Amino acid sequence: MASKKVTVTIPEDLLEEIRAEADERGISAYVTDALRAKRDRDKLRELVHWLEEEHGPVTETERSTAYAELDDLDAEHERRRAARSKRTGEAA
Length: 92
Description:
Blueprint: H1 12-22, H2 27-55, H3 60-88
């Protein structure tokens, strides 16, 4: 994929945090991942807006059910990570 170099201004404190987290991936890869994640969240917000226009707002019951399902999914992912780490001897 083609890339293009751009110049951006970032507050120094944020840049230092990014440098600490970017490790060997580098700042460009870190920023690219962050921008993709932001773009994806924006698209999801737009989808939610369209769906709410068509079907009405999400009820508190629906929201609670969705969060409970996400919690269950997170727990399952953690269980699988722990099992894999136990098999391979890696840290979870």
